Amino acid sequence: MKKLILSYFIFFFIIAGCSKIITLPEDVTIISNVNVVTMDSDTLLANHSVIVQGDSILMVIPNSKIKIPAKATVIDGTGKYLMPGLVDMHTHIRDTSNLSKYIRYGVTTVRDMAGNIGTPLAWRNQIIAGKLTGPRIIAASPFVSNEDGFPKNAETIDSAKASIRAYHQKGYDLIKAFRMRPEIFKAVMQEANALGITVSGHLPDRGISQALKGNYDIPIDIVLESGFKSIEHLNELILSSFREEWNNVKMEKLAAKIASSNTAVTTLIGTDIIIASILQPGGEKIVDSLANVIEKRGVEGELEGFKNQTNFIINSRPPIPDALSTRVPEFTFKILRALDEAGVTLLAGTDSHNPLFYAGESLHFELEQIARAGLTPYQVLEMSTTNAAKFLGKKNQFGKVVKGLKADMILLDQNPLLSISATRSIRGVMLNGEWFEIEQLN
């Protein structure tokens, strides 16, 4: 009998503990009764409230566990889905008008990959200081290159090292590497590694060199062993290794090498798929169709920029064998799957704001193209949330909807774990704890 009474008492206290109502501070914003995609796992937390205080997430908790303070700001999430803000890992911000477009499309962090286009370093600092509203900016240096048509800031070993030191001193977050000779590449990597600043960029591989008629001739093994942080543009793996034909064994070995080197790969496959379609017979119809869309947008300078871009693609791009140009999507998806299966860190990037790709909006297109490779929506979302945060060394700052992280979140009408296109169904965006209704952003 005593054991039975004790059991009742234990049961009572468990129930009482589970039903305890938490008293919240008055100065909070509550996104209530929402389905949370935390990105801690692929499990949806139904009917939860996310409590935000200042610029951070105070807690994620079932609705039944809280009493809403009278002065709290409440955002009704009933029937909606809350996920972390997206990260575009390869952008080119041309002016401050782009910044609001990123927020409009739920992109709360961007990695700007060309410090010589616009002034991303200054914009980054202004956003941090609260003088400018925009996504968090990770700012790459100007291109480090010795190729004609780009900043010639690495023509000699000494000038290359001096450029790395100068960009590090100015406060850039990383070095953007472009085409360079082998001895220059070696000097760049040595100097950057000594200073503790990462290097990402284009693959200076001998296959690319042959395609571009350049003098780079650096085997990919040397690139991977150098500490190169991320290969930008997945299509460069096609150009370097699979220009003529596909080889499963060769790809598996390459993917394993990339994985073991801890080098990440940034996708940018939307760019490649559109460019490949332009280069195919009948591509001029696609160009005309895109031009009509751009003209209707009515943004000053965009149509001219688009025409310049397509002329460059058609007339100046490295020659791609006809058999390959029609198979770019197929090869791209095979490479994506192989890299993912090998455990390579994959990052989603767009190359916006090039004339073909628009700030914020293009990331959703990119995610949709990645999903075509047969990856689950959760796997695709990882590339633009948790993978990006971890790669940047900021997994304790953003990338998930969990206690203690920055309040960068997107409220959606549809479930992104069922369809990646649901990321387009934005009802509102929270950036550093500040809430923007979709009507404001439009």
Instruction: State the CATH superfamily name of the largest domain.
Output: Metal-dependent hydrolases
Low-confidence stretches: 4-17
CATH class assignment of the largest domain: Alpha Beta
Largest sheet: 8 strands, mixed
Instruction: Report how far the terminal alpha carbons are from each other.
Output: 68 Å
Averaging pLDDT over every residue, what do you get?
86
So what's the overall shape? globular
Strand segment count? 18
Task: Indicate the CATH architecture of the largest domain.
Answer: Alpha-Beta Barrel
SS element count, helices: 18
The portion of residues assigned to helices is 40-55%
Percent of residues in beta strands: 15-25%
- Radius of gyration, in angstroms, nearest whole number: 24 Å
Q: How many structural domains does the protein architecture include? A: 2
Give the class from helix and strand content and strand pairing. alpha/beta
Give a brief rundown of this model.
With 442 residues, the protein is α/β, with parallel strands linked by helices. It has helices spanning 2-18, 97-104, 120-128, 157-170, 182-195, 206-212, 220-225, 235-241, 248-261, 269-279, 283-297, 302-316, 322-325, 328-342, 361-371, 377-383, 386-391, 438-441; strands at 22-23, 29-36, 45-53, 56-62, 66-67, 73-76, 81-84, 86-91, 107-112, 136-144, 174-177, 198-201, 230-232, 264-266, 346-347, 409-412, 426-431, 434-437.
